[in-house]
Design brief:
10-stranded mixed β-sheet, Trna Endonuclease, Chain: A, domain 1
Length: 257
């Protein structure tokens, strides 16, 4: 699947899938902490009732080993924009920050202790050679969002990466955002406010963790992600780098809506 040419309805999910297919991209989302697992596109109402009906794009279970043995949870709402190699930007969603803030508030109301916006920029192959990141359009978009997000106490990260065509598919091309720290592939613009988990998020997080720990048939589980199949209505633990279909019903997990 070529991300820039994919149906906008599925592009966000397909992009998240691509991020979690590449360790240098999703590893940075731990922000230097140790992760036990990441969960992707998880319905809020999974065993929690029907009051909250949205999805959580990314949930991470982390801790500050060896400084602390306390496990922390972070949640992210993901937005995807396109940057052509000539510097032209598409789908920046600057005018939709109000709607985005509403979505982030829903995460917080759901009980999530740490909520942030993750802006992913898909850069056409050759972009980083021709254009310095961030281009002016991204700077303007980011500046417009910062004030709103800071006022609400939400975190804000930017993750840019190039993609190149490979036959009928594309592949991530890693670009160093910080040459002094090549492990850091993101811009962390606003810190994530950390609070205590509340219900019903706590119930959902505990359910995801119990599922992860029961999945003993998967070696090297930290390289796998928790996903939810909407066809068979079951949680699955898969390696998103290699697996795109549900292990139970074999439906395509990426194009599920």
């Amino acid at each position: 699947m070529i991300l820039s040419e994919s149906d906008p309805q599925y592009r966000e999910k397909a992009t998240i899938w691509r991020v979690f297919s590449e360790l240098p991209l999703y590893g940075a989302l731990a922000r230097g902490r140790v992760w036990r697992w990441f969960a992707v596109n998880i319905p809020m109402d999974l065993g929690t009732g029907g009051k909250f009906t949205s999805d959580v794009d990314i949930i991470a279970r982390l801790h500050d080993f060896p400084q602390s043995d306390k496990w922390l949870y972070e949640t992210r709402e993901v937005k995807v924009s396109l940057l052509r190699k000539d510097g032209v930007a598409r789908s920046l969603k600057t005018g939709k920050i109000g709607r985005t803030v509403t979505q982030l508030r829903a995460y917080r109301k759901f009980g999530s202790p740490s909520v942030s916006l993750l802006d992913i920029y898909l850069c056409e192959a050759g972009f980083m050679q021709n254009i310095s990141f961030p281009p002016s359009a991204v700077v303007e978009s980011t500046t417009a969002k910062l004030a709103e997000l800071r006022r609400e106490g939400f975190g804000y990260e930017i993750l840019p990466f190039e993609y190149g065509r490979k036959e009928s598919d594309d592949t991530a091309l890693f670009t160093l955002v910080n040459e002094q720290n090549p492990i850091n592939t993101t811009f962390n613009l606003l810190p994530i406010l950390e609070e205590e988990s509340r219900q019903p998020f706590s119930f959902l997080a505990n359910r995801l963790h119990a599922f992860f720990e029961r999945s003993s048939d998967r070696p090297h589980k930290s390289n796998h992600q928790i996903v939810f199949c909407r066809e068979c209505r079951e949680l699955q633990l898969i390696r998103m780098k290699d697996e795109h279909n549900c292990p139970s019903c074999h439906s395509d997990l990426v194009i599920q809506s």
